[in-house]
Amino acid sequence: MQFFCSNASGSLTVTITMRALPPGRYAVVLADAAGAPLGGQWGLILAWDGGESGVGAGWRLAGLTVRQGIFNGHDGVWYWARARELAKADQPWSAWYCYEAARYLQVPVDFLSSTNLEKLAAEQAQIKGSAQGGSPQDAFPYTLQDGPRSWKIDAVRLDATLRQPDLGVAYESTGVTDPAAVHTEAVTVMSALLKAQPGLRENFHGLWAYAVKDGKRTPVMELPMAQIP
Hints:
Distance between the termini: 49 Å
Shape: globular
Largest sheet: 5 strands, mixed
Radius of gyration: 21 Å
């Protein structure tokens, strides 16, 4: 089901899309946690419980999302502006993922869209390739040549697991199992990516490595950019 909400002037319309929603009465509450260190945002879904014969009737919590609104002191508007700067500077990969960061920081729940977010998506979709390769939107699977061997990158996505603007890199592993070899392989892949897309190093906190083998994705490690050769 879709619900459309507009502000008093009608200048902004927010669309709430909830799939497979059982019949009933619902309310959505979105709020900023004022003064929170991470600029937190709350998204609450409330469902009306009529109780038995009206006894004990009231609103019940049906869903809760808590998401930060700041990375390193910068909010979603800052990352949106930064994405535009990077797009103009012919850094499509850094621009693409700054748009991703902007979207993540501005939306407390995944079922919400608005005219502003549609504008952000339209700008992101217009990012073109450069001398360092095409835009991430059509790059995968992405092959990295690292000396005599090559690495296949299945995906790169924004990863806020550590509350930092990291990028998660999913790559096809050779299947090594020795812990030292797994570590070396992950670092080699991350280093190769940063050599191919150097702008990522200065615009994001670090990289997560996810090894993919026989369809199984395994998290390996996270390293700040300064620790990746």
